[in-house]
Amino acid sequence: MGGMERGMRVWISHRTSYFYHQPVALGLHRLMLRPREDREHRLLAFTLDITPDCRVAWATDVYGNAVATAAFEGETPVLVVESRAELKLVGAPGDVPQLDPFAQTYPFAYSGPDWTVADPFALPVYFDPQARLAAWVGAIVMGPAVPTLALLQDINTAVQRSARYEVRAQGGTQGPLDTLDRGIASCRDFAVLFAEAVRTLGFAARLVSGYLANPGGSAPGTASTHAWVEVFLPGAGWVAFDPTHGTMGGHNLVGVAAGRTMEETTPVSGTYAGRSDALRQMLVEVEVEVTA
After folding, report:
1. Topology of the domain comprising 101-265
2. Is the pLDDT of residue 4 over 60?
């Protein structure tokens, strides 16, 4: 007989509001708000409401993200985009990814088919002419052959300890060397530092934006969007690492968009025709409720 399925029920509300000094003509807007689904993340319900009225077309991008494109007519003094989602998360803390035997020890080489897909994600994005980041992460590699998961978790912990967490409402991400130099980072900055660090070792890593499902409600990233990294490991697939908290596994993470850069995962982006200073205020409100 099967036992009761473990997991958490999660409700997410994400509201982005733009207020303009005078009516503007909105251009196309790209919306990445629908949570991704996999064996540990089951999407039970999703709604998307937009003011003013518009035409919405859905598509799947090259990374497998669900993308809604909103097309507007006329002018408006306000734009409100609100998504609501309900999910069941069936993973558990402590679940250990099962790697193929050849990938259990670093270094290893991706197989041909895997490398065809993983190659772009293994290429560093940020310019580092003095190889400072490679030297920083190289000091964490203890010996010529080390357990892969232990190495990645050591890097995860080192990234978490490299900077103090700060909430930064404005968009944009600082480079990995800036994070090491400043010692202050948002979740996006921690994620970029971890991704770029493991890429210098040849790992394929992608940035993920989404939400943290935290029953306690006080951890960094709980009341806002969150960012982390997934590393492709043969046998296990894409494995989540959250360097803001130094954790491995996606049992409490709800991914919405994944990409090679953080900018490719922006939840709401678009243009308007009007004065350059027409935008009066932008508000982002995120609520995440969790029950066992």
Report:
1. C8orf32 fold (3.10.620)
2. no
